[in-house]
Amino acid sequence: MQIGLMADSHDHLPRIDRAVEVFNRRRVDFVIHGGDFIAPFALAPLERLQCDWAGVFGNNDGERAGLQQRSRGRIAAGPLRLQKGGRRLTVIHILEELDLEREQADLVIFGHTHKAEVRHEHSMLLVNPGETYGWLHGRATAAVVDLANLGVELVDL
Q1: Which pLDDT score, from 0 to 100, does residue 136 have?
Q2: Which end of the chain has fewer CB atoms at under 10 Å, N or C?
Q3: 51-110 pLDDT, tens digit each
């Protein structure tokens, strides 16, 4: 099972569109957004995904009621814990808000720093797919994770 990861899209519709194209072309089975969608209109491209998706609110998501309504409940306050492909996943926007020593997950997905990052800590794989919008650091990225072997590929958008 492959999942697509994105975070910090900040209303940048062209880059959100590009991420959706990448995920659809690669036929990922599920997509996770690590927060900071910003406004409900930014969810429109996600409606073209050929798979289901879920996400967490970020610290800049001001229109939470509108985001929750437009997403049909797919966005929740973190941490969000899911089971996919036989793996335990935890999704949170700000990693420091999670007690990693007590967390029981195979994969932790986060955002907030806008920097792509892949590392192991406390027997877990931690992945920040980077910023979808690409303005802060000049590199727009997403990630594809193969849950069978926890292989991660960062994708430039």
Answers
A1: 84
A2: N
A3: 999 999 999 998 999 999 999 999 999 999 999 999 999 999 999 999 999 999 999 999
CATH number at residue 112: 3.60.21.10
Whether residue 90 contacts residue 108, with contact meaning beta carbons closer than 8 Å, is answered with: yes
Structural domains in the chain (count): 1
Q: Which two structure tokens, joined as six digits, stand for 118? A: 């892949």
- Structural domain boundaries enclosing 51: 2-156
Say how far apart CA 38 and CA 64 lie, in whole Å.
9
Helix (H/G/I), strand (E/B), else coil: 20? helix
Alpha-carbon span 114 to 122, nearest angstrom:
22
CA angle 41, 126, 27 (to 5 degrees): 55
Q: Which two tokens stand for residue 59?
A: 């610290």
In this structure, is the dihedral angle defined by the CA atoms of residues 57, 140, 124 and 3, taken in order, positive or negative? Answer: positive
